[in-house]
Amino acid sequence: xxxxxxxxxxxxxxxxxxxxxxxxxxxxxxxxxxxxxxxxxxxxxxxxxxxxxxxxxxxxxxxxxxxxxxxxxxxxxxxxxxxxxxxxxxxxxxxxxxxxxxxxxxxxxxxxxxxxxxxxxxxxxxxxxxxxxxxxxxxxxxxxxxxxxxxxxxxxxxxxxxxxxxxxxxxxxxxxxxxxxxxxxxxxxxxxxxxxxxxxxxxxxxxxxxxxxxxxxxxxxxxxxxxxxxxxxxxxxxxxxxxxxxxxxxxxxxxxxxxxxxxxxxxxxxxxxxxxxxxxx
Length: 281
Prior knowledge:
Shape: globular
Number of strands: 8
CATH architecture of the largest domain: 3-Layer(aba) Sandwich
Number of helices: 11
Domain 3-hydroxyacyl-CoA dehydrogenase NAD binding: 4-180
Structural class: alpha/beta
Keywords: NAD, Oxidoreductase
GO molecular function, one term: NAD+ binding
Pathway: Lipid metabolism; butanoate metabolism
Site (Important for catalytic activity): 137
Mean pLDDT: 95
């Protein structure tokens, strides 16, 4: 099986690395520090052990981790046949990482940008091989979500798309083909909903609990929009809304000040232990 590189050991990167490994691939997971990578291995072990309990398949944590090598720095990805980038939804950070990947990787390595809002053509333009860059919008938690958005950039070749589809198939994913537009389909709708839900709390119209109760009770949604915000990450929500606001120059995407305040205060949701709700570690 091919060696797959995974950039970023945050919530999304951990889920992608686990899912790729359970698909039978060897994985090289990279981040910026040994401490972050040690925490990632601990999280993957825990997630594999709880997989059955959470409705997933029975997984052997040691077997999954045996397929995952961790390393500090992007240089460790030089032999990967396909790399999946999962860094935060911040354009400057994405741009820097993709410029470095373009310098390190062989010309035939496929580069998958896991992004929820940034246009793929913009990311591909950073390097000298835009034909090998493609977008996949994975959902969180990655191993438990069977569907992704697959987004070709302007220059993405059919070969790049097919190699990406082959990987997704090995991961047990179904994909929905989506054209390259900021936010794609899911986040053009979801981010507006979460942003407006945050405005309702910010303006004192309703509590977070009340907003989510309406969506669960009235519409039958399994989670309310603000519970979803905590799961995704309040900071990630803010960055995504900011990208939409910048890209479309449309006031309907104006970020709620409460999202900015919570991000500045470190209230990032489940991953920080507190967002619209408080979580036990």
